[in-house]
Write a structure and sequence with these properties.
Layout lengths: L3 H13 L3 H19 L7 E5 L5 H10 L4 E6 L2 H13 L6 E5 L12 E7 L10 H11 E12 L10 H12 L11 H7 L3 E10 L2 E9 L3
Parallel strand pairs: 1-2, 1-4, 2-3, 4-5
Antiparallel strand pairs: 5-7, 6-7
Length: about 220
């Protein structure tokens, strides 16, 4: 059975699934695409995406790995899965992309079964105590030498000044987490602490708020 925060997230994303591209992806897609490209995927690769949403990254990743590759997505929301499946079918990529409803804290895949994994504006949705669990599950699922790419809302770096919007966003998350559901995180440190070797760090921003991509490698 899903716990209460997970059930709340599922209900929320089911409700907004039809409008998500307009609400969020219009501002997030550039950062998402930069993270995808930094994974340096090869044709034929087997890729896992956690939190596939409306399927935009699944389609992009599928094109990067080509017809001999495979992309498998896991999401908590049946509503998002429905939207993604329709989009994937329209793109003619249903044979290359596989969709699952599941909990990223307990992935149901064999160890060492993926060449790469990707998350975009998803890791920061988890309770902070669950983030190492999610990253640990991904580490286990990746082959030695496999790559992870995580794009997230990011904490302000030491010495940098938070914008007014950033301060407001953090305050809203603290006081109204049911409305502002994600928290800025130090994604590079979290990925490194999970056991990955950091290969690349990419700094971006959305509406003056910091966004960061961490590209890590599972040790051989």
């Amino acid at each position: 059975m899903p716990d209460q925060p997970q059930q709340t997230n599922q209900t929320f994303y089911d409700r907004i699934s039809g409008a998500y591209d307009f609400i969020a992806d219009s501002s997030e897609h550039k950062a998402r695409e930069m993270g995808q490209n930094a994974l340096q995927l090869q044709p034929g690769a087997r890729v896992l995406e956690i939190g596939f949403g409306t399927g935009n990254s699944l389609i992009d990743l599928s094109k990067l790995v080509g017809p001999t590759g495979k992309v498998i997505g896991v999401d908590i929301s049946p509503g998002m899965k429905k939207v993604a499946a329709e989009k994937i079918a329209k793109a003619g990529l249903a044979d290359q992309i596989e969709l699952h409803i599941g909990d990223a804290r307990n992935l149901d895949f064999p160890a060492d079964s993926f060449d790469a994994a990707f998350m975009s504006f998803t890791l920061e949705l988890f309770d902070f105590s669950d983030i190492p669990v999610v990253l640990g599950e991904i580490l286990k699922a990746l082959k030695p030498g496999g790559r992870i790419g995580v794009v997230s809302m990011a904490t302000v770096k030491t010495g940098d000044k938070a914008s007014v919007l950033e301060k407001t966003y953090v305050w809203m998350h603290q006081h109204f987490p049911h409305i502002v559901d994600c928290q800025p995180i130090d994604v590079v440190t979290l990925v490194a602490e999970a056991g990955f070797t950091i290969d690349q760090e990419i700094d971006m921003e959305i509406w003056s708020m910091p966004v960061r991509a961490a590209i890590g490698v599972k040790p051989a």
